[in-house]
UniProtKB/TrEMBL annotation:
Protein name as it appears in the record: Nuclear transport factor 2 family protein
Lineage: Bacteria, Bacillati, Actinomycetota, Actinomycetes, Micrococcales
InterPro entries, per database record: NTF2-like_dom_sf, SnoaL-like
Pfam families (UniProt xref): SnoaL_2 (PF12680)
Residue ranges of domain SnoaL-like in the record: 11-116
Protein source organism: Microbacterium mitrae
Amino acid sequence: MTNQNPKTVATAYFDALGAGDVATAMGLLSPSVAWHQPGDNQFSGVHTGIEAVGAVIGGMMQVSRGTFALTVSGAMMTNGESVAVPVRFTGERDGAVMDMAGVDLLTIRDGKIAEVHLYSEDPPAEDAFWGAAASR
């Protein structure tokens, strides 16, 4: 996918996630991807590399017992190599429900997602859902 339009790459990424095709979605990440997970919970922080990002996503699926889901909720907006994507993310765990809006900001270079910054509408609620941050 070298030299692909950033919106095309972002669309392929979210289409793969929506179809449950994690392998294709992960294949669109740069090997040195920097994933900026917000908040103060067990998944927060900057995770570098596909393996680290896979561990975060896998951890979220485990904690939510497979219920974590992300859907695109509006039009993608581009500015050069950046693509802002309005999303809605949901999950359930131990009787708790998370359902909130967010924005995923992807930076796409050379046809790969090089950086991801995630934003949520209610960071304290997201932190409460995912659980306390590990000692750092």
